[in-house]
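thought: fold this chain, then report.
action: predict
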Amino acid sequence: MSHPELTPKSNLSKVILTSTGSTGDVTSALPYGIYSDSHDFVSGASDQVAYVYKKLGGDVLDIEITTGNVYAAYEESVLEYSYIINSHQAKNTLSDYLGSMTGTFDHDGELKTGELSSSLSGAGGIAMKYPRFEFAYARRVAEGMAGDAGVGGNTTEYSCSFRTVTNQQDYDLDSIIQDASDSGEDAAGNTVNFAGLVGQKHLTVRKVFYRTPHAMWRFYGYYGGLNTVGNLSNYGQYSDDSTFEVIPAWQNKAQSMAFEDSIYTRNSHYSFELKNNQLRLFPKPVSSSPKYFWIQFTIPTEPWETSGSADIGIDGVNNLNNVPFQNVPYNSINSIGKQWIRRFALALCKETLGQVRSKFGQIPIPGESVTLNGEALLTQGKDEQDALRTELKELLDELTYNKLMEGDADKVDQVNKIQAKIPLSIFVF
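observation:
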């Protein structure tokens, strides 16, 4: 059996990869042209031809792909690198971007509108920024919990009054508040600030109370506060400044913490039961005093509703899809990234060459046939792509901000261990 003599001159195809690329041909061969305005990218894509030619043995055997195939592979490699890097950065910082400004994107993934848009030729945009950590998402969660607990937050608390009826024990607070919302006034004729806001929403009642004469709202000592119970309509035996005692500061602090509860329990003639905003008073009102009871409540808001002109961060970033990340500027990719891009582009070229050669298993030549390695190149190219993706992702996983902080904490621990072994100077002679 005779063996064919193969040279760099093609016996198989009229298409042969040249040994070098041309910067003048790069732009017209790019499928997307995202980086076509970058001189450095064009130069890198042109140089990739020589790299692929050497790595695939173009000076020994023919490579049946064009320079355009190499340029396209180089562009795809940069975009793949940008995708992985942006995904990593989103994993790092998405919680701090939630609610932040976003923008609109063109078909290339570039920002069309928004203050964060920038040219690919320079470093800019949110993808190239290190965020100022404010734990924005955690803060918003905490504000919601604080509002629900009544200890702060950004939930507006409303109030209105209602008139008691002699011998009527039960009151529908939803109806009372709804009537005030519809009319714009409460039972006492006060203008309410929740007019038209209630609708069919289920209200959360925070507090029910009535007001007694302020002159008797006081702290109680262990031995003072004579005749304070039953002060609904009288001042009692003594005025506020008629009882004196020497007590420790901690007792005053404890008294101040319990002051509000003291007002509404020890000074109150009424208790109540509240179920599903149905109020039952104990005992039944038997007189017109107190004339009005008061309700403090909150109106649930939909999580996507704005509140007036205040920016509560609900119209911005809400997931990975609209984080204003555009393609990483080519000029911002360092030597580590560019070498990964070169290797990935080579693997793509192997896949392309494998596709070309797989169209025909064998090529007949005079007196013989040549078996092509298309399937092997396809497998090798895809395996190398997967390996490169895994390599980059594993590296980035070790470089998340949380991992870096863990590393810094470990450094501190090691320094402390070293310092613990160093004797103090006073013991060194």
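thought: worth noting. The first strand starts at residue 104 and ends at 105.
final: tokens above.
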